[in-house]
Automatic annotation (TrEMBL):
Protein name, UniProt field: Acetyltransferase
Organism in which the protein naturally occurs: Rhodococcus oryzae
Listed Pfam families: Hexapep, Mac
Similarity comment: family membership: Belongs to the transferase hexapeptide repeat family.
SMART domains, per database record: Mac
């Protein structure tokens, strides 16, 4: 493991143009090319590619093409979970998706952060990353964006188009931009 990858995984500033990180992303992209080129009846081929691509994927879970991610190896998906079309999982930090999760089309789980106050560091392409955690039995509506460092509790529903910038407690319906709790769920 290279120094920049170590820094990335510790949540420190790192350079994404590091040769090892670039090579790892290209390897991921080759697997994504295979996955996204599969035919409608090639479920077992798709699942085989996902098993090579992802950190882990539980029994009964599946992802619809078109799927995009940076590294793949930092993504963990529990059992019986589903990611609909056009999911983007920017896994510069770990992304953990629980069991029985449904993620709507065009959802984005983002871990990358860029310096806000240090304009020169941003100009020089330094970045950092923070993990995303999605609990069990969560439903993210279509077009939901989950920002870096966010944890969504168990049994949560996030309304379509929401931008989740802060942690969401268990058993609530939350929606909006920025996302906020609307009501508790029984």
């Amino acid at each position: 493991m290279g120094e920049q990858r170590d820094r990335m995984l510790r949540g420190e500033l790192y350079r994404d143009d590091d040769a090892d990180l670039v090579a790892e992303r290209k390897s991921c992209q080759r697997l994504l090319d295979q996955f996204n080129a599969t035919g409608a009846d090639e479920d077992s081929l798709r699942h085989g590619v996902l098993k090579r691509l992802l950190g882990s994927i539980g029994e009964g879970s599946w992802i619809m093409p078109r799927f995009q991610c940076d590294y793949g190896s930092l993504i963990t998906i529990g059992s019986n979970s589903f990611l609909n079309y056009d999911a983007i999982l920017m896994d510069c930090a770990p992304i953990t998706i629980g069991n029985d999760v449904s993620i709507g089309p065009r959802a984005q789980l983002l871990t990358a952060l860029h310096p806000m106050e240090d304009h020169e560091a941003r100009r020089q392409r330094w970045e950092s990353a923070a993990p995303v955690v999605i609990g069990d039995n969560v439903w993210l509506g279509g077009g939901v964006i989950v920002c870096p460092g966010v944890t969504i509790g168990d049994d949560v529903v996030i309304g379509a188009g929401s931008v989740v910038t802060k942690d969401v407690p268990p058993r609530v319906f939350a929606a909006g931009n920025p996302c906020r709790v609307i009501r508790e769920l029984s």
